[in-house]
From TrEMBL:
Keywords: Acyltransferase, Repressor, Toxin-antitoxin system, Transferase. It comes from Geomesophilobacter sediminis. Gene3D superfamilies: 3.40.630.30. It catalyses: glycyl-tRNA(Gly) + acetyl-CoA = N-acetylglycyl-tRNA(Gly) + CoA + H(+). This is GNAT family N-acetyltransferase. InterPro entries: Acyl_CoA_acyltransferase, GNAT_dom.
Length: 181
């Protein structure tokens, strides 16, 4: 399946945003009206899912950015050993699949891709304590829980995928042993 698809940064010259409809007006409008500005301003990246054979048609998208969370918001088991300050985190701002394609594991494909990007960020660029998402409703929260997201005590629609879960899902590849000197 993965070989038939491309997940890439939104490029408004190549990707047709107008036909996208996930059934949620706010998420459609974000893609159509705001995503490009946020990308240009460097405050949120939008990644789109397209088929290799039809690369202009957007099947789904997600956004990634950073946020700060307060230590007190975290589940108790993650509070220990962390500094008692605001902590850096990654944010899955939006995730949406076109209505005609829902239920085909495309949401899973995008979520796993977002996790892989965050694992790369932690290892190669900047530390974050996890990936956070604001679920729109309890049904969507159930979707995220399937992947290991943990609801926060104060607000069960705000969920965290801990750094440890993300890194365990994408173990670092061992460098090939080089015997020459
Ligand atoms: C929620 C959404 C992203 C899921 O994407 P999808 O492609 O339909 O989901 P997938 O086919 O990848 O499903 C993966 C798994 O999650 C489950 N799942 C999908 N939607 C779910 C939901 N709303 N509630 C609970 N579980 C859900 C599937 O049953 C599947 O589980 P399985 O492997 O055990 O069968 C998509 O339905 C969507 O875009 N909805 C409208 C926009 C929206 O609400 N976005 C979330 C914003 S917070």
């Amino acid at each position: 399946m993965a070989g038939d698809f491309i997940i890439t940064l939104l490029d408004v010259d190549r990707h047709d945003r107008s036909a996208f409809d996930c059934g949620e007006t706010e998420l459609n409008r974000y893609l159509q009206m705001t995503a490009r500005q946020h990308l240009q301003k460097g405050i949120a990246n939008t990644y789109v899912l397209v088929r290799r054979e039809e690369p202009s048609k957007i099947l789904g998208y997600f956004t990634l950015s950073f946020l700060q969370v307060d230590l007190t918001e975290l589940p108790a088991q993650y509070r220990n050993k962390l500094p008692k300050t605001s902590l850096p985190a990654a944010k899955l701002g939006r995730l949406a699949i076109d209505r005609k394609c829902q239920g085909n594991n495309y949401g899973r494909l995008l979520l796993v891709d977002a996790m892989r990007r965050v694992a790369g960020t932690i290892r190669n660029a900047a530390g974050v304590i996890g990936l956070f998402v604001d679920a729109k409703n309890p049904h969507v929260a159930a979707f995220y829980r399937k992947f290991g997201f943990i609801p926060l005590e104060e607000n069960p629609l705000f969920l965290m995928l801990p750094q440890q879960t993300i890194l365990a899902a994408f173990p670092e590849r061992k460098a090939a042993h080089n015997s020459s000197t």
